[in-house]
Write a structure and sequence with these properties.
0% strand; single chain
Length: 171
């Protein structure tokens, strides 16, 4: 299966949360998803970055964080929609449920929209705004929660039938 066939497979199966997918089938989709989400997140926080740099104040009237927060939420929801089912199928290959993806998803939903708001509060003197420490703590907890998920997604499947079905035929 070529990379384009794998991407097409995942697009065709956006709502199929049952079954199993192999490492090979998931890898191209997962890596593309991370890259697209990262690029989209950079674009989403651009209004705040431009406002902090002094370029966007006339565009957003000092409220760029609202635009960025909305864009970040769109990116997060899009990421969930595009990756949720494929992550579920990949976790199923090793006998795990989608529950392993819930903590990172919840934390990303909390952290993502808070970032533009907190960063928009940075004063000219560079002192950390209120909530910066809490945001940093949430980011650390998010990273700690996503590490096992990454390990599970990258691990080999069981190769044996499990409660989610037979091993994937593709690898």
């Amino acid at each position: 299966m070529t990379m384009f066939q794998r991407v097409s497979y995942h697009l065709a199966n956006l709502t199929r949360f049952e079954g199993r997918d192999s490492q090979a089938v998931f890898l191209a989709w997962g890596m593309m998803g991370v890259q697209v989400a990262g690029f989209a997140m950079v674009l989403a926080i651009a209004p705040v970055a431009l406002e902090i740099a002094g370029f966007a104040s006339p565009l957003f009237g000092g409220q760029a964080w609202i635009v960025s927060t909305a864009l970040v939420l769109v990116v997060v929801v899009g990421l969930f929609a595009l990756m949720g089912a494929s992550i579920a199928r990949r976790l199923h290959d090793s006998g795990r449920s989608l529950v392993w993806a819930v903590p990172p998803a919840v934390l990303l939903t909390l952290v993502g929209p808070l970032m533009p708001y907190i960063f928009a509060q940075v004063p000219d003197d560079g002192v950390a705004p209120d909530g910066f420490s809490a945001l940093t703590g949430l980011i650390v907890v998010y990273l700690l929660s996503v590490l096992p998920l990454i390990v599970f997604l990258a691990a080999n499947g069981s190769g044996e039938p499990n409660r989610y079905g037979p091993p994937p035929a593709d690898g």
